[in-house]
Amino acid sequence: MASLLTKKLGMPIATIDIDVAHRLGKFAKNKSRPVIVKFLRRQTKIEIMKRAKMFKGSRLFINEDLTKLNAEVLASLRLKEPDLIERAWSFEGKLFVRYRGSDRRETVSFVKYQEWLDKPWPQKNTTASQTYARKVSAGNSNTK
């Protein structure tokens, strides 16, 4: 783990910098599982998170381990109003947003969480990809 991060991020990370690392979920043949890593020093994690963009275009991702609530709000920020939100991200467990047309980032306050959770999810265009079972259950007789 340490050698992979050192190689990909270009910063020295030794195994003694890692407190614990393990895979999540059950083993499944031919399927990769996420790895969760806890570092001894918070500063090491911060430096790695700052360099996470270096993995863009590869099959590797570095994400914070968010609470379920924060993960749901972050997904809402990113997906529910794409015309309003330019970018949404987390850092040190806090959520941030940059609105389109603005140069400043804003912290998403806990008071705003429910407002974002209550917004409707965008509707998918399912006409072309609708399954046979959904067409039948919806009463659509044109199933071909």
Characterization of the model:
- With 144 residues, the protein is an alpha+beta fold.
- It has two domains: 2-55, no CATH class; 64-144, no CATH class.
- Helix content is 31%, strand content 18%.
- It is built from five helices and five strands; from the N terminus they run αββααβββαα.
- It has helices at residues 2-9, 42-50, 68-79, 110-118, 132-137; strands at residues 18-23, 35-39, 85-91, 94-99, 106-107.
- The strands form two sheets. The protein has a three-stranded antiparallel beta sheet, with helices on one face. The chain has a two-stranded antiparallel ribbon with strand order 1-2.
- β3 and β4 (94-99) form a beta hairpin.
- α3 (68-79) packs across α4.
- The chain is globular and about 45 Å long.
- The chain starts with a helix and ends in a 7-residue tail after the last helix.
- The relative contact order is 0.09.
- The mean pLDDT is 85.
Give the structure's gist in a few sentences.
The protein has helices at 2-9, 42-50, 68-79, 110-118, 132-137; strands at residues 18-23, 35-39, 85-91, 94-99, 106-107. With 144 residues, it is α+β, with helices and mostly antiparallel strands. It has two domains: 2-55, no CATH class; 64-144, no CATH class.
